[in-house]
Design brief:
The protein is mostly beta strands. The chain contains no helices and eleven strands. The strands form two sheets. Strands 2, 4, 5, 6, 9, 10 and 11 form a seven-stranded mixed β-sheet that branches. A four-stranded antiparallel β-sheet has the order 1-3-8-7, with no helix packed on it. A hairpin with a 6-residue loop joins strand 9 and strand 10.
Length: 115
């Protein structure tokens, strides 16, 4: 089972940007799909974005245009670039490999958007 370690979270002002990183313990090229999910206090975990081994991406409709998922295969790392951040983006962001039902999860990284 792949191990995932997220980093890059923190406190940012509204309108700011952050880049989250997810380092995998094995080649991400061999993983069918990797993704980012988030969970805000009192809410269910929700999809943010996914990227397949072939490079196809998918985003939550509400986040298209502000968030971008990318990867560096040589570094076994997936990134989430977040722009124009809003207070409602405040959540714990989790990296996932191989889907939310049976896949692997990282420990999560907190993103707080506040002035």
């Amino acid at each position: 089972q792949v191990q995932l370690v997220e980093s890059g979270g923190g406190l940012v002002q509204p309108g700011g940007s952050l880049r989250l990183s997810c380092a995998a313990s094995k080649s991400i090229f061999s993983i069918a799909a990797m993704g980012w999910y988030r969970q805000a206090p009192g809410k269910q975990r929700e999809l943010v974005a996914t990227i397949t081994s072939g490079g196809s991406t998918n985003y939550a409709d509400s986040l298209k245009g502000r968030f971008t998922i990318s990867r560096d295969i040589a570094k076994n790392t997936v990134y989430l670039h977040m722009n124009s951040l809003k207070p409602e983006d405040t959540a714990v962001y989790y990296c996932n490999a191989n889907g939310p039902l049976f896949g692997s999860w990282g420990q999560g990284t907190q993103v707080t958007v506040s002035s």
